[in-house]
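User: Please predict the structure of the protein below. I'd like the answer in structure-token form so I can feed it into my own downstream comparison script.

Assistant: Understood. Taking the following sequence of 334 residues as input:
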Amino acid sequence: MMREFEIERQFNIKIESIKPNKGVYHLKTDKGEKCLKKINYGAQKLLFVYGAKEHLIKNNFNRVDRYCLNAEGEPYALVNEDLYTLSEWIEGRECDFHNLEDVNIAAKNLAYMHISSKGYEPPENSKLKSDLERWPHLMDKRVKSFDKMRDMARKKNNKSSFDLSYIKAMQFYKDLGKRAMEVLNSSEYINICKLTEVERSFCHHDYTYHNIIIDKNNDVNIIDFDYCKREVRAYDISNFMIKVLKRVDWNMEFANTILNSYNEINPLMEEEYRLIFSFLLFPQRFWRLANRYYYNEVNWAQNTFANKLEDLVKEQQIYLKFIEDFKQVYNQKE
């Protein structure tokens, strides 16, 4: 159990009320409204995240959920071996991915964040988080895991509806994974990683609707940098695109809006479209769902897994049409 008086003592605040809110706690304190969050990784990684936010603020990108420091000047409280962070509570609404104007301002905001991330030197005692140059290995490993998971499904005596659907759908996604790998291998990926290393930038890595808060002034705020790391910006852009496009039936207008809006602020190089195309092709959502199911990563009900897989399979045709349209518009060969 979290001991509230420890949080109060370490952060030098008085808690007036505490309310659970989507995996965090909304606190009213004598120093304003705060967000309290239990962290499931170590202090060294947290210092990387803390340093990243401070770097953005120093570079005039200050609409982030800045951490409060404890009495010792650290961005966390240690309570019963657990780490807790306290940050400013940002009032506003979540970005609406069905709304083209929301998507437009969120894309511009991502571009501004990437610009401000340049030149980040993590604190000395932090652990560097980086995925630079890792994607050929990650894609290869994940594509190989499709066969392993199919074998797990086949060996079961009592196959669930998920197992049966997975066995049937797997080849489609394995083929997509191989296409993505070929595109990545024919790209300037390694050179772009080297450029990213030189400019010392980072990505948010979870730029999705509930981490994009639009306040009453229509300003965009970004929260929850837990996954931020050194990474090519094409990853953040394509990940954001997928999160939007899966909600709007892979509507090409939304894809164009994201890329055009981003380019207005922080123009992409021609070679980066190849990386974006590769990430759009890779069946990350299928892999994650199957991985969660076969390795018991989350405790969802059986029918939740089956329904999510069914939804993925249902969108195959509109997704493939989108991929063909994207190839035409952005001049991508396979």
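That's the full token string. The beta strands are 15-21, 24-29, 32-39, 77-79, 82-88, 93-94, 212-214, 220-222.
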